[in-house]
Fold:
Amino acid sequence: MAIRPADHGIFASSATAAAVLAAYFAGGINSTGSLSTVDKFAFSDDSRTTLGTGLSAAREKVGGAANSGVAAYFAGGVVLTATVNKFVFAGDSRTTLATGLSTTRAEAAGAANSGTAAYFAGGYSGSTVATVDKFAFSDDGRTTLGTGLSAARKSLAGAANSGTAAYFAGGDEGSVVATVDKFAFSDDGRTTLGTGLSAAQFYLAGAANSGVAAYFAGGYSAVATVDKFAFPGDSRSTLGTGLSAGRYGLAGAANSGTAAYFAGGAATYASVRDTVDKFAFSDDSRTTLGTGLSAVNHYLAGAANSGTL
Structure:
C-alpha cells in the first residue's frame, strides 16, 4: 500500500491548530508579582487552558481588544510600555507589533470594530491622557484619533457594538467619574452619553453582546454592580444579579450572542480572586465557572474570539 507523505509527519510541523472560540485573559499581578500568563476559556464547555506562550513580558494594567475570528491584541501596561502583543487565534501564536501605542502607558481600555480596527483609549503615561489610538486590522498600522476622550482619564473600561461604536466608561480624572464616551465607527466622532454609569467608578471591566448591549462590571470600591447599556438607544439598566462578589481590577470578554465573562479582580489588595463569572445574554443570569483562572489575579485584560461578528 502506498504511504502518504503525511504519514511520515512531513506536514505536521507546518500545520496550524484550528481556532477555538474562546475568551483570553492576559497579564495581571498577584502576590508573586506581575504575570505574563494568558488563560484561554473555550466557549464550547468553559474549560481552561493556559497558552504555552504568554505575553512578551510580565505586565499588569494592560488593555485588551480583538478582531473576532482572527486575533487578540494586548496593549501597554506596567512597567510603562507601548508594546502591543498580537495572538493569532489559529494556533495562538504571539507576535509583537512593530508599531506600538503612540506613547508608553498603562491603564488604557480597549474595544474593537471587528474586521476593521482596535481602539485603545486613555491611560496613564506619567500623567493621565485622553489619547485614543486606532490599529487598522488590515496591516496593524496605527493612527491616533484627532478627537480623544472627553477628558484625560485612566482606569476606564471599554466595550463595543461591532460595526457601530465603541464605548469607554468610567475612570479616574483626578476624581472618579461615571462618564461614558461613545465613538462612532463610521467617522470616529465622539459623543458622551446623557446617562452614564449608575455610579462613578474606575478599575471596572467591560464586555458586549454586539448588536444588543454593553455590560460594565465591578470597580474600585469593590462593588458587584453590573450596568447594561442597550443598543442602539444607549439606555442604562442595572442587573438585579451582579458579580458573585464585589471586586476591582477584573477583566471582561464576551461570546457575542451567548454570554459575558468577568474574570479575576480583588476585594482588597490582600484578597485577590481567580473567579470567573458568566452572564447569559438570554436572561442576564449569572453562574460562576467551576474552573477559574490558573492563579488568583487582578489588573489583567480580556479579549475574545466569538467568530465572525
In short: Residues 22-305 form a domain with the Neuraminidase fold (CATH 2.120.10.80). The chain is about 0% helix and 40% strand.
